[in-house]
Amino acid sequence: MRFVISWLRGLPTAGLVVCLACTTVDPGSDFNIAEAVYDENFYYCRVEPMLFAQRCGPGDPSKGDAANGCHFNVTSFRMRDYSPLVADSCGGSLVPGVSPPPAARSNYQTAQSRMQIDPALAALLNRPIGTQAHPRAIFAANSPEADLIRQWATQFSTQ
Question: Which of 119, 46, 125 has the alpha carbon at shortest distance from 86?
Answer without folding.
Answer: 46
